[in-house]
Amino acid sequence: MNRKITVGVLFGGQSSEHEVSRVSASSVIRNLDVNKYEVLKIGITKIGTWHIFDGPVEKIENGEWEKEISGLGLSIIDKTREQVDVFFPALHGVYGEDGSVQGLLELMNKPYVGPGILGSALGMDKVFAKIIFDYEGIPQAKYLVLKRKNIKEDMEGFVKGIEDKFGYPCFIKPSNAGSSVGVSKAHNREELVEGLKMASLHDRKVIVEEFVEAREIECAVLGNHDPIASVVGEIIPSREFYDYDSKYNDGTSQIIIPADLDEESSNKIRKYAVRAFKALDCAGMSRVDFFVHKITGQIYINEVNTIPGFTSISMYPKMIEASGISYSELLDRLIELAFEMHREKV
Hints:
Shape: globular
Helix content: 25-40%
Number of strands: 13
Structural class: alpha+beta
Number of domains: 3
Strand order of the largest sheet: 11-10-9-12-13
CATH class of the largest domain: Alpha Beta
Largest sheet: 5 strands, antiparallel
């Protein structure tokens, strides 16, 4: 294209990660090359209305953008269908990262950054991702899958079963959530009951995992059919585990890039990351998270994040940058990959 490419950056959304999405989108907007791109800022409120926002990016970041909009944005799809060349969904969590918005963009017949409907849905649903990892032979911690309805009907029975299988501590997670929302670590029966209740508020499926005394290692994957893996990074949480506050609020967790791992372990993690990316039918980008046992060095896959954080402290752009690709160049590549995948579909 001789003219500038119009990028529609989607931010906000209806998930519990609305605020994180705004910060990610603001970072993306600031780093898109103004000589190459026109940016159309498209905000989604917590109640699900869509709006084109013409104000400064700072007001997206701090949440003040909603004070300057009017109407319900009902015709936004018609407007953006013609105006936007490619979409960048900087949306985290449900309705943004789970295939929902990807389906809408497919119906609009528009290129968009990141995995498609299937890859997004599989990456978001930890239960189905775990089933695929098992099939692929990628090691992971032992786990149980519970349903909200069954937990309510027989909390005592499930608690006893979890104690017999895992003991304490153990982790409780909603199947569909990101940024560690709804995740807890139980050290006793009281915390286990509270953790099951909290996870059930976020999803009808709940995962309970054995505790692994491990380091938290991450790897960024970039590409479509021939993806590349970044150098690996390590998170040293400021709390017992890398929860929502550790990621976004207290700012005291440590990030080490590259991680202090031997070459064999690092290469194995990078290979597992690409295998997981391909197994879930991902495209464009994903961040793959691992545990490495502190004593044995055993590697376990944790999860795949199909729209990783793009904030100034987020691991995905930092690991890519440590691999020799700047933030702005990363955005260029993601947009190119979106066009490539769209051409293939068309």
